[in-house]
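Protocol check, entry for the methods section draft. Step 1: assemble the input record (protein sequence plus ligand SMILES). Step 2: submit for complex structure prediction. Step 3: store the structure tokens unaltered in the notebook. Ligand used here: NAP. Step 1 record:
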Amino acid sequence: MMNGNKTTFFTLFGATGDLTYRKLIPALYNLHSLDYLDKGFKILAIGRRNYTQQEYYDILRPWCEKFVRTGFNERVFDGFLSRIEYVQMRFDEVEDYQVLVERFKECPKSQHLYYLAVASSYFDVIASNLVESGCTALANTKQCVIEKPFGTSFSTAQELNDTLLKFFCEEEIYRIDHYLGKEMIQNLLAIRSENPILTPLWNDQLIDSIVVRALEEVGVESRGQYYDHFGAIKDMVQNHLFQIVSLLLMKPSSNLDERIANQNEIIEHLELYHQSEDDVILGQYEANQAVSDSLKGYKDEEHVDPNSKTETFVSLRTRVNLEPYKNIKVILQTGKRTHMRSTEVIINFKGHGALPNQLIIKISPDEGVYLRMNIKKPGPSHDVETVMMEYCQSCVYENRLNTPEAYERLLKAAILLDRSLFTPWEMVSSSWRVVDEWLDFIKTHQVPLLMYPAKTYGPTKVMEHINEDLQ
Ligand SMILES: NC(=O)c1ccc[n+]([C@@H]2O[C@H](COP(=O)([O-])OP(=O)(O)OC[C@H]3O[C@@H](n4cnc5c(N)ncnc54)[C@H](OP(=O)(O)O)[C@@H]3O)[C@@H](O)[C@H]2O)c1
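Step 3, stored output:
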């Protein structure tokens, strides 16, 4: 058990949404099946559809059967369902919250975790209604867990934050960046600080470039409406890729406040490498009938403007303008509908006359650490060849089985009031400031949007850049 016998209300706004079915419910099932939830842990699943309890349970079943990590089991599923109550209400109508008030009154002074798995335009509405209706007054501890996106620019993020601060204090706001729940993201700091041989290498005398890459095979799927207003830079770079870069280069610290300040320092010093338009490549996928007739172009996706100028791929050549990293090229790349699904970090060391060594940290879906070394070719020749020293963590079945999914780790942390896996306002605000500046730059310099066929590695210019950067 996590906390003994206390009552926790996990109030889930958006309980009939995609995120709930695919990620949150399976993660909660896993926590239940591992006996991490207290007896008094209740899930109030809020939706506006007219479902009976049984109808809602019937919807949850196939999602659990398909997505739970710990194995689907009928008895465990029944126990899990006994924690869930479907509550039909409109979350934008304050009078509808009376049903929650009555429920909370049955167990006053309990832990209230409000999870907002809803469109960001509702974050402030729900926060305000929770307070106005009297729900929050019945809580012992209250937490507001918020999905991305947190704003669309620095000013809208600040506006949202100021509104939320009227109802919750900073310590009660848990901003999700699900990358922080990923096993190998957690591992980045351990790899750095637990391997003293790496410490002296972490500078621009020895590191030439760092590539942080998050490629997806899928297109926008059903999320065209959201994505078309965001694009790759706001959707992926501002949060996930900045998290990775800052964890890679920050001064490690075991103190949470210090860690946040150190991570923030890295983000604040991110800038385009040459301050030239050549630092940015923007792309958008188009149909690729050579591979498959069903591979639509981005503009033909559902809910996407047929004249859309939104980027679905970006490659940014940047630097962290701080000693001892100033001359390291930090390449940030992310794209949809590329040839493969892969999130990884590649650290390219300087050649100094030999073939450059590489340290590769694979984050997802494969997890592992790889080191590219040079050795003499076996046999009589004195030629040198490059080989890979490999540790594939996810290749081991037990590792896969024992590794919590990102959402499972994040939910467990939130339930335990552990804020270390959530993004503080400081970091959200500095990330948006940097991204706003880059987006202004892109606009002023009229960086072109290049087309790339679906299922390829982005615009061809990307390969040219990679070759240039690796020289
Ligand atoms: N899906 C993902 O993979 C993903 C990933 C990262 C972040 N996110 C973020 O997570 C949030 C939710 O995403 P999603 O994909 O789950 O969205 P979604 O599928 O559109 O679900 C939205 C939910 O809100 C409910 N809702 C809307 N208006 C309501 C109202 N007035 N009263 C009561 N319920 C109402 C919907 O109920 P109905 O069923 O009745 O419409 C539905 O349950 C968004 O902020 C998104 O950006 C999602």
